[in-house]
Amino acid sequence: MQMNDSQRIEAPRQKVWEALNDPDVLKASIPGCEELIKHSDTEMEAKVKLKVGPVKATFGGKVTLNDLDPPNGYTIEGEGSGGVAGFARGGAKVRLEEDGPDATILHYDVDAKVGGKLAQLGARLIDSTAKRLAGEFFTAFAEQVAPTTPEETAAEDGAEAPEQKKGWLGGLFGGKKADPTAEEPAA
Amino acid sequence: MNDMTPTREQREAALEGMGCKRKRVEDVRFTQGKGQYVDDLKLPGMVFGDFVRSPYPHAKITKIDATEALKIPGVIAVLTAEDLKGVNLAWMPTLAGDVQMVLADGKVLYQNQEVAFVVAEDRYIADDAIQLVEVEYEELPVLVDPFKSMDPDAPVLRPDLEGKTEGAHGPRKHHNHIFNWEVGDEDETAKAFAEADVTINEMISYHRTHPSPLETCQCVASMDKVKGELTVWGTFQAPHVIRTVASLLSTIPEHKIHVIAPDIGGGFGNKVGAYPGYICSIVASIVTGVPVKWVEDRMENLSTTSFARDYHMTTEIAAKSDGTVTGLKVHVLADHGGFDACADPSKWPAGFFNIVTGSYDFPAAHLSVDGVYTNKAPGGVAYRCSFRVTEAAYCIERAMDILAQKLDMDPADLRMKNFVKADQFPYQSALGWEYDSGDYHTAMQKAMDTIGYRELRAEQKAKQEAFKRGETREIMGIGVSFFTEIVGAGPSKNCDILGVAMFDSAEIRVHPTGSVISRMGTKSQGQGHETTWAQIIATEIGIPAADIMVEEGNTDTAPYGLGTYGSRSTPVAGAAIALAARKIRNKAQMIAAHMLEVSEYDLEWDIDGFQVKGNPEARKSMKEIAWAAYHAPPPNMEPGLEAVSYYDPPNMTYPFGAYFCVMDIDVDTGVASTRRFYALDDCGTRINPMIIEGQVHGGLTEAFAIAMGQEIRYDEMGNVLGASFMDFFIPTAVETPHWETDHTVTPSPHHPIGAKGVGESPNVGGVPAFSNAVNDAFQFLGSTHIQMPHDSWRVWQAAKDLGAHG
Fold first, then answer.
1. Nearest to residue B177, comparing CAs of B340, B379, B380, B391?
2. Which of B18, B522, B629, B790 is the 20 to 30 A CA-CA neighbour of B533?
3. What's the rounded Cα separation, in Å, for the pair B204 and B332?
4. What's residue A127's pLDDT?
């Protein structure tokens, strides 16, 4: 599975770089991430709950950061096993480009492979799932480094019976604003 | 006699014997949901087994820890290769002379390979436990492409064979090489090519697919430790062989093993082999002392128990400029997966692929097959065909079209020119077979006339012109296929399975009141044996088919036979049935002579009894004779009326047929619609025309599936794609074309009733008809060969590659 795209984030490049190295931010941004432990500046361990089509599993694995080039980018590589559900491995080249002093364009180039039941049953869903997960990641990540203005938040929080997805997003950044270290259940 | 005496016609009709469109007797229970399949079996105390399978296609196993799984209430045991080693069953022999892991022994060779067997009180608990068995894998480089199997640096798939330079079928030339098999005269063939006016050379692939019966493989094993007897109910196409193998492997004496194949929901070759599920269930029952049931799920079936095909055939034909073929040269690269578990008679590593000269009179031919290992599931079964005959038919039928294209000849005319002629039978083929009978020209002409072949070609020509002028986006293909099958394995001189000669058998008992029970060594999986076997007996001994019960599948009661696959039931067991019936008729003649107080030579057979020659009113019906056999047999004659026959066929039978497919293809969407499909089959004597028609419909539907999309595909990582019905094409009534069937009758001269077998012909002949139709459609755009399967995406891609999209 390959995916290239870029995302504009309303925050200075240094701030984005720091967030990309902050396990708490990453944990809150990675969809389904239940655990993210930083062992060193370049090694992390993660536990992620993932659902692709009919296959659902908790993947445990290692994440390493290579080619560190602050604040321009790095390569992130990971490998995880979901037991009988299969396994996944892959990486992403991340490059940060300044877009004026207050905004950054994050370019990413993902190359990932899946195996086992995940590939057997989910093959046709992998690309669409990956795009959805990337979308969720960046929405959450952007909220971490460049929180939405309070007015917008208030408007959303004030809405009666918000639809589930907005509720989840609202809850996520709402919690972060109150206490950046507070842990939020990732969906 | 009075007016109520039935006429000869009425008596004949009452038998519902050979040639009658008798309704299938088994359908009474099947259409009411009253069939008894393995999974219907529920025994007291029965537990369930299920497999932990490998997500990796090639990996070392460094650890298996079942501690957490065993903590779940209801989990009884988790078996691994280490446990099986204790009973010497971690590995099992395959039918092809290789060995295969029952449970992963230190490594796995394909995705979904069996790693551990969880035994639990129910299937749900077993499934939960599977998630908790912790297996540590260390990934190894994956080999998916068979063309790279014998690269010098290809990964070693089978360390257990290290240093073994001699395989079951001769020398191995590489660590991933299984066998080389050569047939024919290489020098003569080379000479034909040197002198040829025209030659063709094309790599024709027949992709990997799967028989995919709707009922998956399953069994219940029950060990009675007190009696020391093992009973196994299972989806077995060959129950007697399974019993012999089970006895040899388990060392339980054969008479203490009872193998029972109840109703089977389709086999198509998938249920010939012995699988790890059977072995593990037996071991688990021996260990636990209670019955153990194992039922494959769909993904397990498609991804582990026996693929079919996966032959890559480099095909060359030498010909004169007038189209006369002079030589055939084929090299096959056969992808056998991780173990060679190909289900062929022992001496035939590539089955009967040497039928590849087809229906044509090739004076010289040479064939070489190399089998290789890859990180894919083992198998290589005959999916509704005799051993590797479908591959051979596809190879030669595609190649003949390619030759016709090169010669700018009509493909039907090229075939007509090269057919073996009716007066050449029995015909010796250049690759070693003796074709028993055939009349190819008559069959082909009838087919061409019926479908209006010349008119169709004219229409196609006009459409091509219109396409070139930009007036239509639809192109038309006419697929021609003329196949010769080789079925009925087989003569003991060259056919055996693990040393057991491939005869078959029948036992017929006539009861005192004139009804009959008969048992055979074959096993129907949907072929309708209960109907057709009774018809053979009815005609032979004059007892109505309705009074004859046919029973198969229980090794305790049925005579030993090699089972049902490779269209062998009618050619082999059908002959045994006729011969056993004739023994009964011979004895009945002596009894009738005694009853009528004449010499047996003064009697003649008349439909359902014996009559005195020249005095037809002095007669005894079989019913009367049966009673006499038990009530007052002639002096010095044993009472009773029963017979057994074991039949060792003198030769194979060679059914053939002419199939035509007319297809319209939208080049912009890739959608190929079958406008007409005409199938003329010659299977010799026709026992039940309605059953033949049903078999042809079913086989054509499978051929349609295979040619147009059905595939077990692997990605470069070794993931098996196509292991569920989301991806694996099973046609429904929506996609399936309308079938037109027809026949000629050329009886087999060596078969007691002249029958040849038909169940597999439509699959064998159908695939090339579909593929040739697609290829024929694209020919005028410059295409020579497009590989199967021809799903819409690939057809669209072919159109694009040929510039048809502008």
1. B340
2. B629
3. 9
4. 83
> For residue range B524-541, what is the model confidence (pLDDT) as tens digits?
999 999 999 999 999 999
A121 touches chain B (CB under 8 A): yes
The DSSP symbol for B789 reads P
Catalytic residue check, B760: yes
B56 touches chain A (CB under 8 A): yes
Catalytic residue among B24, B243, B309, B384: B384
Give the helix/strand (H/E) hosting B630.
helix B622-631
Q: Which residue does chain A place closest to B303, by CA atoms?
A: A120
Tell me whether residues B721 and A85 touch, CB distance under 8 A: no
Distances (CA, A) of A109 to A15, A59, A62, A64, A144: 21, 22, 19, 16, 21
Q: Are B271 and B217 in contact (CB under 8 A)?
A: yes
Half-sphere exposure of B204 (CA within 13 A, CB side): 30
Across the strands, what pairs with A118?
Answer: none
Does one domain contain both A170 and A139? Answer: no
Q: Which H or E element spans position B232? A: strand B229-234
Tell me the mean pLDDT in the region B558-577: 94
**How many structural domains compose chain B?**
3
| Structural domains of chain A, count | 2
Q: Residue B509, class by beta-carbon neighbours within 10 Å (0-12 exposed, 13-18 middle, 19+ buried)?
A: middle
B564 & B440 share domain: no
Min mean pLDDT across A18-27, B477-486, B525-534 is at: A18-27
Q: Tell me the nearest-neighbour CA distance from A76 into chain B, angstroms.
A: 21
Which comes out higher in pLDDT, residue A33 or B1?
A33
Name the domain boundary from B606, B622, B647: B647
Nearest C-alpha neighbor of B264 from the set B210, B307, B215:
B215
Q: Write out the residue range of the structural domain in which residue B400 sits.
A: 307-419+427-489+652-801
Residues of B in contact with A119 (CB under 8 A): 715, 717, 719, 721
Is the bond into B789 cis (omega within 30 degrees of 0)?
yes
Q: Do residues A26 and A20 lie in contact, with contact meaning Cβ atoms separated by under 8 Å?
A: yes
Amino acid B766 reads G
Both A43 and A122 in one domain: the answer is yes
Residue B680: how many CA atoms within 13 Å on its side-chain side?
Answer: 23
What's this model's pTM, rounded to 2 decimal places?
0.93
Question: Token digits for B104?
Answer: 């992963």
B401 with B481, same domain: the answer is: yes
Q: Which domain holds residue A171?
A: 149-187
Q: How far is A84 from chain B (nearest CA, A)?
A: 6
Whether residue B222 sits in one domain with residue B113:
yes
**Residues B632 and B777 grouped into a single domain:** no
Gap between the Cα atoms of B693 and B189, Å rounded: 40
Taking only the tens place, the pLDDT of each residue in B390-421 is 999 999 999 999 999 999 999 999 999 999 99
Compute the CA torsion angle B171, B172, B173, B175 (nearest 10 deg): -160
Is residue B324 left, alpha or beta, with left meaning phi > 0 and alpha meaning psi from -120 to 50? beta
Q: E strands, chain A, where?
A: 2-9, 33-38, 43-52, 55-69, 73-81, 87-98, 104-115
| Claim to verify: residue B612 and residue B665 sit in the same structural domain | no
Q: Are residues B561 and B576 in the same domain?
A: yes
B290: phi then psi, degrees, rounded to nearest 5: -125, 160
Kindly state whether residues B719 and B739 are assigned to the same domain: yes
Tell me which of B621, B647, B673 is where a domain ends. B647
DSSP tag of B6 = P
Q: What band does A56 get if pLDDT is binned at 50, 70 and 90?
A: confident
ipTM over 0.85: no
- Residue B29 main-chain phi, psi, to 5 deg: -80, -35
Q: What are the structure tokens assigned to B726, written together? A: 């989301």
Strands (DSSP E) found in B15-169: 47-53, 59-65, 75-79, 91-93, 99-101, 107-108, 114-120, 134-139, 166-167
